[in-house]
């Protein structure tokens, strides 16, 4: 395996920390990994909890795998053999037999929309992981029947038609048959939304409704809207429509956010960096998460970035926020992490691979310069959404200009996504001590990318192996919940196998990661993105006691089984926040999901193959009005099949030089 300079740097730092502690007498020689100081675990106190008889991946170069771990006061106190760790116990130490299970450091999603997603989670019907379109339509029918007016049924991202055995999207006729009266909004990636007739009525889209700039209302031969809204490539048309749906009351939003965090805990996630998002205004839309934090109900640690909502007023937003919050202020459960992923609207490209790559407007550099210069002057870390190398190159021109008179120095910054970043631009990122946050959007859109740009271009989109070889700081993530799913194991499967959720091979051996490399990306790599690599990402003495006990051994399970892994126990800050299977007695109960009609209450979140409701699907497809053959696939290129081949007179690259280009507050990632 080639050495990764970035990881080597983190390993050296950990080694120096241990050496310093040993030299000052804080580490007993016999228990070299025991971290014993007043802040964390004192020697006379002993551990609160011991987990033993496991296979614990520490990500510590000196002790990469141990069988036992001791936790004290929310921190890792010691790791070692069962005998060594049991010797540290006090009479009231809680001891849990891992029964040979694999344990990993808690997963850390470096790009998640948890705060916004939590407000809506209980309202959304998730098709994430559903194996057949017949099942998805049956779920839709059942949910439509129980959803009371004026609420909608919403399927908001996290799925691809290629995950279905039928290998196709639902038709509008099928959606209308499944839900003739209840409004339905189904978001497909960032390219389209499907609305049934009831939804068209409640949002007022008629024959006379004009198209949105950068978007299109599909119409029949008589000019009537069919229910298909298409981003070309501006997603404003999709999110402005979604935003018109009813919201949950505050009590249900609190409940919804807690259950979304629990769903993430079920998947082994203990931390994330929240990337903001459209309609996520600071501080108004942070009230729920702040309240949960104040009440000690956080089960996922959040470092949050602030995302401007005002096209043309971006600099004013950051100047206002600079007087309200300081970088890294907060605590280990909720802390500020700087600006982005939206810095200026003119610099944000799109990831809709069904559309041609958009060129950014000519005034992008001026606007980006003003905002980034202010951030660097005020030592604010930042992140910037950028899908294409062309956008990245122009942004780097701006950053290098600023750096000549206002050095970036230790300001942490990175690009999000970067699917087509070139080696040349990676070198420029490296010279400015920047990084990249990698998400598994290609696992959901890889087929579209190959269709437009070809298989060869896809083989290094993004160039995973090149980033690691160069030592460019990289973190793993999902970009959940509105495009890809929030399930980290789908991302880890994609990193290791190089395949989409539909099974299309994207990468050869030259751009696939080994399992421990992928795990490091999702732990230490993500921790670096929030300046927390000293306390997160590895099971070392003096680090947070954040870990996941897995349902299957990530290090040995067949590749195809990686995406089915969950946690059977998750610990955050030394507290068990989720437990199942043989550890069920340790589970932390939550209030029932509210409201009563919530799709999550009936179907759960990410769908596993053995979902409890599966028997209800018998015959449900025909009941939903879907009685045709489900084995066919589309013919020809995807762009032709989906009507995106220029038939509507929209040939060539979209222009962004118009007043509503790249959105308003409705533009959402």
From TrEMBL:
It holds the Pfam family Amidohydro_3. GO terms for molecular function: hydrolase activity, acting on carbon-nitrogen (but not peptide) bonds. Residues 96-578 form the Amidohydrolase domain. Coiled coil: none annotated. This is Amidohydrolase 3 domain-containing protein. The lineage of its organism: Bacteria, Pseudomonadati, Pseudomonadota, Betaproteobacteria, Nitrosomonadales.
